Amino acid sequence: MLSKRLSPHLETIIKTCPAVHREFVPSKKEGWDEKMTTADPLMEEEHTATRGLVHKYGNRALVLLTMNCAAYCRFCTRRRKVSDLKKGVITDKDLDNIVAYLKKHPEIKELIISGGDPLTVPILLKKALTRFSRLPQIKVLRVGTRLPVSDPRQADKKVLAALDAVKRQPLYLMVHFEHPAEINPATVRAIRRLQPHVTMILSQSVFLKGVNDNVKTLYDLFSGLIEIGIKPYYIFRCDYVSGAEHFIVDFKKETEIMTKLRSRLSGLACPLYVIDVPGGAGKVPAPLNFWKWDKRACLDFNGTRITLKKL
Length: 311
Ligand code: SF4
What we know:
It is a single chain. The chain has ten helices and twelve strands. By secondary structure, it is α/β, with parallel strands linked by helices. Strands 1-2-3-4-5-6-7-8-9-10 form a ten-stranded mixed sheet. The protein has a two-stranded antiparallel ribbon with strand order 11-12. α1 packs across α2 and α5 packs parallel to α7. Iron/sulfur cluster (SF4) binds next to loops.
């Protein structure tokens, strides 16, 4: 079960912003409706090749380096194991096994380092990035984080030194933002420190009921991000994860919001709206209301028809 943790930085923000409060402070609505949701909707456990490595898509793989985060988001897709530090720590032996698996699978060209938050364990991150970046087959590295939002002071010299371990490949930093109140002076300073150490910073967001499910909030968020040099990359439909049901937004409402945003934002500022389809088949782009289309179902990347659950 996901523990409760807040940083001093977030303690201050939640006093004046109910939306950010909702993101991080546990609510009585955190149920467990297994008819509707599952603990592992993206089927990562099933696709775990060796401890800490998920290999679902041919040319890329996901490394879950730690289950530690500076603060725990109540809507976390990996809430089944994030904050469980006993199970979550990747050891030297695990890294050896991951590297051995990668060598046996030269088709893997891109690694996504995630968790938990890899930037909260900079010594381990440096070790992992050093080993992965030395593999000739690895052409692209990505690191996912929420540290600039959840505890910007932790984005310190140790973190920068870890990112500097990548010399050869492009290194993309994917920062998770949900609400414009998360773009504040301390976070912007952290982003400025990080920017020279990576190829590019992109953002990822999730539609969350009561947090960002309206045009104005997302307009302000994506405009604010592009103004500080962050490219809004993806906005996801909230995964059907047990314990986070109360964050799921009506699908029709999401498509209406994204249609309006696509009309008002520049192409650079507007992220791609995708659904990580249940069953782990991939991130399928959701069409907007510029076209007539079937809102009840989509085809995944294998051509399988996925019927969307009705809320
Ligand atoms: S920072 Fe990411 S991994 Fe950590 S609790 Fe939030 S969503 Fe989950």
